[in-house]
Design a protein that fits this description.
35 strands; Immunoglobulin-like; 24% helix; 37% strand; 15-stranded mixed sheet; Rossmann fold; 3 domains; alpha+beta; six-stranded mixed sheet
């Protein structure tokens, strides 16, 4: 506590679910407010919590409002930590402290920190929003008066995809316990909301929606306004912020394969921004021959308490495999070893393997690289191989350089699938592994619809995929886009291309891929518009994607450290997004004027809100550009039913079941 009697009180109200395969280990906690355990002060009280979500044609806007009160008799500085949804661009922060409302502007990180510190130390109302790597956003609020209240609201945008006809939106509430044991004992938690917890979702789709599901949210009110518009309302009073909100929406069956382009351009003197969504309509066949499965199991100390349930699940998988399948089991902690070498799924082999799996013990660190390297040894090039990685820990032993992971995964032709439950996932590292191997990763929340996740996994693992895929745009110069080499495209997978275009005009898009040894080209033509101002939020989404990609290329050694930092800083300040190099300082209008800070974010928010208000009263717009010349001639895949569960489906069931066992039912409803 300094001379002014302030206490730096840390607030947390949400935490991210798994978005990749390398997770921070630790016990699971509910979200809430934190106060130093030895301070003798009470944690700040959470008075209410409200979430408003709009999902419209491929991207979501999430607005969060949360009200706190300071029950102590001293001035407090609060810290509110929000887990970072993958690809989310934080665009707006507002805090109301007493009668004063303060708003945010993005500046280079050092400059924003300096200004916040000066305003805080002068006793003024101020706040600061920063990005903590890939894990979370942090909001600091200065000078909360005794018995005073603070209302924090923020907005973020993110692109969404539809997978095998199913869209998924997740709002994270369940905290993953990423603090060290020492930090956990340092803080006193208050996870209870005194008043209402409300989630309102507006879903607008240009394509017919067959069904909306909100698993695990008792009392959810789902209202269908028309075939493409739904509203969802969930409300309860009191309880803990400790369970994620997950919403699924299933599109109608037999929709066409398609290419959609959502543009934004203010005029001919400015470059345009676009989001291209490619939904292939391609008839991919099921894999008929026996397959090889390599199970890579984390047996480090962080798996204590989870390993028995996981072992039971793996044993169940082994008992259900086809005799034509082969398997290999690799375990890792500080080092890696082969628990069971290649063998067919004959009854005697399976019984022996089950005994070994049941005898596993958890101990040591987490050397993910060693586990992957061991798993890739001795593969059969003539058989399709799926590598299933099971871990809940960030790699903290052995090789940790992303460049080494990328190089390693380039040494073999395998499909890597990561099924993880937990929080604070190192998704950039997992993306590196998947990009190199042509696999995919998925996050699984405790609140997910288990059957839905199983079916989505099945549609990729048990069907052939498109190989050597490339996407090209000709006729109009595009730049800073994630087009080009794609690699593998799995059944039901959408491609989302974010980029910029130089000027209006006719363009041709081509998707080239190899299917069962035959090269295929899918193409159409369309026009990039001279002016289209319906979706200004696209600029922030593109800029955040570009910043994330530059950081990944920097980590791989493909872009210089200083060059990457400079471009990321420029993207953050120009498009007003919080990055690793920029922060959002939140001040009164008078403070911004006194300091001569340009109000770029205020002006950008005004443009976005005007567009949002216009879209709210208009019919949802269909952005398909290949109606006249369809790029695909088959319907998009949808989830099928029936049939026996394959080994990876069973493993996924077991992983989700393990999480359900280990995380008690803390979702307290009326």
């Amino acid at each position: 506590m300094n001379a002014t009697g302030r206490l730096r009180v840390r607030l947390t109200a949400m935490a991210v679910v798994a978005a990749g395969a390398f997770l921070v280990a630790g016990a699971s906690f509910a979200a809430g407010t934190l106060t130093p355990a030895a301070s003798g002060l009470a944690p700040l009280t959470i008075l209410d919590h409200r979430v408003e979500v709009t999902i419209n044609n491929g991207f979501a806007m999430t607005r969060v409002s949360q009200r706190f009160s300071n029950p102590n008799d001293t001035v407090a500085d609060g810290m509110y930590a929000f887990p970072l949804p993958k690809g989310a661009s934080l665009s707006e922060v507002q805090a109301r402290i007493g009668e004063k409302v303060i708003n945010g502007e993005v500046l280079p990180k050092d400059e924003a920190r300096k200004i916040y510190g000066e305003e805080r130390d002068s006793g003024n109302q101020a706040a600061l929003a920063e990005k903590d790597g890939f894990m979370r956003f942090e909001f600091r609020v200065a000078n909360i008066p005794p018995a005073g209240e603070v209302d924090i609201s923020f907005v973020y945008y993110q692109a969404l995809t539809v997978d095998t006809g199913v869209g998924r939106y997740m709002y994270p509430l369940e905290e993953g316990g990423t603090d060290s044991p020492a930090a956990q004992s340092f803080w006193t938690r208050n996870e209870t909301v005194a008043g209402p917890v409300i989630v309102d979702v507006v879903l607008k789709s240009a394509w017919p929606v067959a069904e909306v599901r909100v698993p695990g949210a008792g009392g959810a009110q789902v209202t269908r306004e028309d075939e493409g518009t739904y509203r969802v309302h969930v409300e309860r009073t009191g309880g803990a912020l400790d369970r994620d909100f997950v919403l699924y929406y299933r599109l109608a069956d037999n929709l066409p394969g398609r290419i959609e382009v959502i543009p934004y351009r203010v005029g001919p003197d400015k470059p345009g921004t676009f989001m291209m969504v490619v939904t292939p309509g391609v008839d991919l066949k099921p894999l008929a021959n026996g397959a090889d499965f390599v199970f890579v199991l984390d047996v480090s100390g962080s798996m204590a308490g989870k390993l028995k349930v996981l072992a039971d699940g793996v044993c169940r998988v082994l008992g259900q495999m086809s005799p034509a399948d082969r398997y290999r089991i690799v375990t890792f902690n500080n080092t890696a070893r082969v628990l069971v070498d290649w063998q067919s799924a004959q009854a005697a082999n399976v019984q022996s393997a089950i005994a070994k799996v049941k005898s596993l013990q958890s101990r040591g660190g987490t050397n993910v690289y060693a586990g992957l390297r061991q798993a890739l040894a001795g593969l059969d090039a003539d058989r399709a191989t799926s590598l299933v990685l099971v871990t809940d820990g960030v790699t903290n032993t052995g090789v940790v350089d992303p460049r080494a992971f990328y190089k390693l995964m380039k040494t073999a032709d395998v499909r890597v699938f990561g099924f993880l439950m937990g929080n604070s996932a190192n998704w950039p590292l997992m993306k590196t592994v998947c990009d190199a191997s042509g696999g995919f990763y998925t996050g699984v929340s405790n609140s997910d619809d288990i059957i839905g996740q199983i079916l989505l996994a099945k549609s990729k693992i048990t069907y052939e995929c498109m190989h050597d895929a490339k996407l090209r745009i000709r006729g109009v110069k595009t730049f800073d886009a994630n087009a080009g080499w794609i690699g593998k495209i799995y059944r039901g997978q959408q491609l989302v291309i974010l980029g910029r275009y130089e000027k209006a005009g006719a363009a041709t898009v081509e998707l080239e891929a190899t299917i069962t040894g035959e090269k295929k080209v899918y193409s159409t033509t369309f026009d990039f518009p001279e002016v289209d101002t319906d979706n200004p939020e696209l600029e922030r989404i593109w800029a955040m994607h570009r910043a994330d990609e530059l950081a990944r290329l920097r980590d791989l050694g493909l872009v210089g450290e200083e060059d990457a930092r400079g471009v990321i800083r420029e993207l953050g300040t120009k498009y007003q997004i919080v990055t690793d190099e920029t922060s959002m300082v939140v001040l009164t209008d008078g403070a911004f004027q006194r300091r001569g800070i340009q109000r770029r974010n205020r002006d950008r928010i005004a443009v976005e809100r005007k567009a949002q208000q216009a879209r709210a009263v208009q019919p949802v717009r269909n952005y398909r550009v290949d109606r006249t010349k369809p790029a695909f001639h088959a319907p998009t895949p949808s989830l099928g039913g029936g049939g026996a569960l394959d080994p990876v489906e069973l493993l996924l069931i077991s992983l989700i079941a393990a999480g359900a066992v280990l995380v008690k039912d803390r979702f307290r409803r009326d």
